[in-house]
Amino acid sequence: MFLNTHFPKAEKYWYMGKLLDWSEAGCHPMMHALHYGTSVFEGIRAYSTARGPAIFRLPEHVDRLLLSAGAAKMKSPYNKDEITDFIKLTVRENKLESCYIRPLLFFSYGNLGLVPKACPVELAISAWEWGAYLGENAARGINTFIVPWRRVHHTQFNMSAKLGGVYVQSTICGLEAREEGFDEAVFLNFEGRVAEGPGQNIYIVKDGTLVTNDRKESALEGITRTSLLEIARDLGFKTVVGPITKEDLFGADEAFFCGTASEVIPIISVTDGSDPAGPRKKNTVGEGLPGPIALRMVGAYKEAVTGRSPRYEKWLTYVNG
């Protein structure tokens, strides 16, 4: 029996052409993805709007899901249009006005060699009501911890892909940050510069300019990140895409995480734990409070995703449309 205790309002999920009750599930222990992380996924949000639920940047998310499948040598059993329709159907069937959506492609049951030569690729889609990723208090700003483990490097796999197995590192380091008493982790790359959070991109603000990095810094160029670059420019801010050093982060006027699950979350302190043998120093970002530009980005993003900004209507796919 699978309860929806941690998946509010989830009643059904879509699996290989069928809508199943949330409590109805079966997973053979020899499924390839369960052993080796051979899955790809997307995190997508739908928001309540005046025209009903709208999914934010759905075409871009489905494109990336299929790009990830290609990077993982998977042949998707469904094309882009079909996956798009299945996602909308799942939201409708759960009668959700706003929700988080998780499509998952994975190598299923077949053989258990590292090469899944007998394993079919299967697709599952789930949706549920999910509020603030780091809790309601995150809007006040979060305290972060630079973990000693370096982010997987951009020379090791396609940084544009969301590969399930890669996120084991995110899970471990997210747990480590919380064990140390912090809200979230920050990764450095092999070069010692800032990469990203476990599931978020990073922006810093210095002298009114917004700075974020790219895949060459071992960061996934997230869809939220890309959206915020456009929004910031439209608001009249200067933006820069390039490397961010630890010192840049420590000395920033403001900083914030962004991602589909996290949305936009101000960072108010960064403690450097990158050297396990060295001293830890807490660095307050700016005034130690969410800054005016970060807060403006929070508001502008919320207006965009909820259909209150006509300029960004292009990014919305209406579930009932």
In words, what does this structure look like?
This protein has 321 residues and is an alpha+beta fold. The protein has 2 domains: 12-128, D-amino Acid Aminotransferase, Chain A, domain 1, CATH 3.30.470; 136-305, D-amino Acid Aminotransferase, subunit A, domain 2 (D-amino Acid Aminotransferase, Chain A, domain 2, Alpha-Beta Barrel), CATH 3.20.10. The protein contains 7 helices and 17 strands. The strands form 2 sheets. Strands 8, 9, 10, 11, 12, 13, 14, 15 and 16 form a 9-stranded mixed sheet that branches. Strands 1, 2, 3, 4, 5, 6, 7 and 17 form an 8-stranded antiparallel sheet that branches. The protein is globular, with a radius of gyration of 20 Å. The two termini are 35 Å apart.
List the topology elements.
Blueprint: E1 12-15, E2 18-21, H1 32-36, E3 39-41, E4 44-47, E5 54-56, H2 58-71, H3 80-93, E6 99-107, E7 121-128, E8 142-146, H4 167-179, E9 184-188, E10 194-196, E11 201-206, E12 209-212, H5 223-234, E13 238-241, H6 246-250, E14 254-259, E15 263-272, E16 281-284, H7 292-305, E17 316-318
Largest sheet: 9 strands, mixed
Specify the CATH class of the largest domain: Alpha Beta
Radius of gyration: 20 Å
Helix content range: 10-25%
Distance between the termini: 35 Å
Uncertain spans? none
Number of E-type strands? 17
Structural class: alpha+beta
What is the H-and-E element order? EEHEEEHHEEEHEEEEHEHEEEHE
Mean pLDDT: 97
**Residue share in β-strands:** 25-35%
Principal-axes geometry comes out as globular
How many DSSP H or I helices? 7
In CATH terms, what is the fold-level topology of the largest domain?
D-amino Acid Aminotransferase, Chain A, domain 2
Return the CATH architecture of the largest domain. Alpha-Beta Barrel
What count of structural domains? 2
In CATH terms, the superfamily of the largest domain is D-amino Acid Aminotransferase, subunit A, domain 2
